[in-house]
Design a protein that fits this description.
Strand content: 15-25%
Order of helices and strands: HHEHEHHEEHEHEE
CATH superfamily: Vaccinia Virus protein VP39
CATH architecture: 3-Layer(aba) Sandwich
Number of helices: 7
Number of domains: 1
CATH topology: Rossmann fold
Radius of gyration: 19 Å
CATH class: Alpha Beta
Helix content: 40-55%
């Protein structure tokens, strides 16, 4: 009986997965990434949303560079590099983990309750993950200081995944006015209880500037701004 039950559950889950994958493929438009890829099997909502954003950027011929603040080991950056191979990709990170002062500030002000070690990375490791490393520009250091000299650049897509209040707010303030019309900013961890400063930064920026955003129901919550 137990074996039959396990077989039924496995069959039912497989059917749901097939239906899900079919629905993601059969959209009547080109696809730019495999939303069922193994390394992001629990992130199909965010990847599917990204795929739609890329379609809009291409269909509307939105110009501009691409950027990510909070690269860590480069998994999401590699996806961006793959789906927009002709665009310059700016990668902002300390590549040494959190800034201790910013992390302590989130603990005191916003309820961050644990330390996560993001030091197991390096510039060299990240570049090895990129399918088109010649299109990647590393900007190592604390953001927004690491963006000095880029004030005249314009962007079509930006990923903010720095987890903490200060770099996310700084990212929104720096990039939003440098987005081409129709461009997208994805802020990761908006609804992640583990990083409460991320949500606070989004809400503070949205309220201060009167700019609405759309929350997405992916695994950790993404907030999307469109220029």
């Amino acid at each position: 009986m137990l074996r039959m039950l396990k077989k039924f559950v496995k069959s039912a889950l497989a059917k749901r997965q097939r239906v899900l994958i079919y629905s993601m493929v059969n959209l009547g438009r080109p696809r730019y990434l495999d939303v069922s890829q193994a390394e992001y099997s629990n992130e199909y909502v965010r990847l599917s949303q990204l795929d739609l954003a890329i379609h809009e950027i291409r269909e509307q011929s939105i110009p501009g560079d691409v950027a990510e603040v909070g690269v860590y080991r480069g998994t999401f950056a590699a996806v961006l590099n793959r789906v927009l191979p002709e665009r310059m990709l700016y990668l902002f990170d300390t590549f040494e983990g959190f800034n201790p002062e910013q992390e302590q500030s989130d603990m005191q002000k916003y309820g961050l309750s644990f330390h996560r070690d993001f030091t197991d990375t390096s510039v060299e490791f990240v570049l090895r993950q990129m399918p088109h490393p010649d299109k990647c520009i590393i900007r190592k250091g604390l953001f927004p200081t690491s963006a000095n000299g880029l004030e005249d650049r314009r962007f079509c897509f930006v990923s903010l995944d720095a987890d903490l209040y200060e770099p996310i707010l700084a990212g929104l303030e720096f990039f939003f006015d440098r987005m081409h019309s129709g461009g997208f900013i994805f802020v990761h961890d908006y609804n992640c209880a583990g990083f409460p400063g991320a949500k606070r930064a989004v809400l503070d920026f949205s309220t201060k500037r009167g700019i609405p955003f759309v929350p997405v129901t992916d695994m950790y919550g993404t907030a999307i701004f469109r220029a």
